[in-house]
Amino acid sequence: MEQFLIQNQWLIFMAILWTIPWKGIALWKSARLGHKWWFIALLVINTLGLLEILYIFIFSKGKSGYLTNRFQTKP
To answer: Which has fewest Cβ within 10 Å: 1, 8, 33, 71?
Structure first.
């Protein structure tokens, strides 16, 4: 495994370049919307942008969905 990572450093670099913008946008949206538990999950869990993309396009859209209401903090 170590040999693979040494030979394919560009793969790690590309994964980092892919993940950082998605994570940044998702964290920003969750903070702005007051979704404390989403913010913590997005900060801790690394899914190469998949969870972040789902949050941005599905879970942060309004208050109509079950999961959105369930994980929203109440003021």
So the answer is: 1
Tens of pLDDT, residues 16-69: 999 999 999 999 999 999 999 999 999 999 999 999 999 999 998 865 444 555
Amino acid (one-letter) located at 18: W
DSSP 4-37: HHHHTHHHHHHHHHHHHHHHHHHHHHHHHHT-HH
Query: Can you tell me which residue has the tokens 């404390």?
Result: 36
Q: Which two tokens stand for residue 5?
A: 């990572």
- Is the pTM higher than 0.85? The answer reads no
Overall size of the chain counted in residues: 75
Separation of alpha carbons 55 and 34, rounded Å: 13
Following CA atoms 10, 15, 20, 22 in sequence, which dihedral angle do they give, to the nearest 10 degrees? 140
